[in-house]
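Data card: per-record layout.
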Amino acid sequence: MIRRPGHLADTEPPTGVPIDVPGLDFERAGINVETAGGSAERFWHALAAGQSALPVDAPSDLVVALAGIAGWRAGVLGLRDDALAHLVEVPPAAAAAALGIAEGDLGAFAERQRADRFWWPGRAGQRGYVCAVGGFAGLGGAWTAPPTDPRPLDDDGAFAVRTGERWWRVDADVWGSRLVALEGEPPTALGREAGPTASLLTFTESYLAWIYVAEPA
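The structure for this 217-residue chain is written out next.
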């Protein structure tokens, strides 16, 4: 587990400086990534890492597809489906570099992600822990009371948790997370499709909540 908000798959993010492509405004794209809940800095580094594995004369539409993958890598939850679709369009070396994983792991990553949004090659080594969310507001986190009563919601990758008298919705995947304050207690999940079961865990007096997926023995 980790002791502050963050994703364990993001401990060694890609690095680099994007290469300018005529007609593409990477600075504006970074701003859009931040507006959508991701990190502009991570986006630029992920895109740069992917570009370094592309031919110098790569067409702009290929760079745009790579930018979508980099945006997902930077924590934009809404880009997940598009990024997974674009993985087959981008050269494997570039896609893997943007994601910060070994090229040899890319096929397994893409296949596993279609059924398990929290999977990455190092998860088993972390005993199934994916990320920590929340944190104490006085230290830059989101919450003024420790989270309790975690429960799954019907949407994939979505949970609810209570801090004091307030309920929160937690959405997450392997790279990103989002917290939204709710008006009241959400309905209990009615059921999910079969597949890996993720849990949101809380611990007494901790201001963090952890997403965990039980790994097979």
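Known properties of this structure: Residues 60-73 form the longest helix (14 residues). The chain has a mean pLDDT of 90.

See the next section for split statistics.
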